[in-house]
Amino acid sequence: MQVETKTMGVVEVSDEQVVHIPAGLLGFADYHDFVLIDSKLKPLIWLQSLEESALAFLLIDPFIIREDYEADIDDEDLAKIGIKDPSEVLLLAIITAQEGSPATANLRGPLIINKRNHECMQAVLSDSKWQTKHDIIASLSQQQEAK
Q1: What is the rounded radius of gyration, in angstroms, for the C-alpha atoms of the chain?
Q2: 52-108 pLDDT, tens per residue?
Q3: Distance separating alpha carbons of residues 26 and 68, to the nearest angstrom
């Protein structure tokens, strides 16, 4: 299928790239159907709305930013999107990038995607260790210095 994107014009995507977010994202509850598209800047991924071409989010694997990242999510919540086994989980964090500010990742509100059925939810973690605006570059620099 062809999808009009915010950043890349019209792109061809497969059904395997489509994710459904029954509850929507925080602040975007009216949008439920998205597609995952690899960014030209690896390892970033676009979460592009299928309902509104101007709505897209940049995503990253949070373990790239913090090797010690943990997302403690209740099994009842995971069951809402059909997750029965940890191997079914794809975990991604939303990036915010604004000119003049460091790029940050929302490690407090990760996206949980069921790789088997392509259902998705946004979790809200209670652990105060994880921030909604985690500085990506600073974190990567700290990891490099520690090695």
Answers
A1: 15
A2: 999 999 999 999 999 999 999 999 999 999 999 989 999 999 999 888 888 999 999
A3: 25
| Cα–Cα distance for residue pair 55/110, rounded to 1 Å | 18
At residue 9, what is the residue type?
Answer: G
What string of DSSP letters covers the chain?
Answer: -EEE-SSSSEEE--GGGEEE-TT-BTTBTT--EEEEEE-SSTT-EEEEESS-TT-EEEEE-HHHH-TT------HHHHHTTT--SGGGEEEEEEEE--TTS--EEEEEEEEEEETTT-BEEE-----TTS-SSEEHHHHHHHHHHH-
**Verdict on whether the full-model pTM lies above 0.85:** yes
Q: How far apart are CA 18 and CA 62, in angstroms?
A: 21
The amino acid present at 71, given as its one-letter code, is A
Tally of CB atoms within 10 A around 19: 22
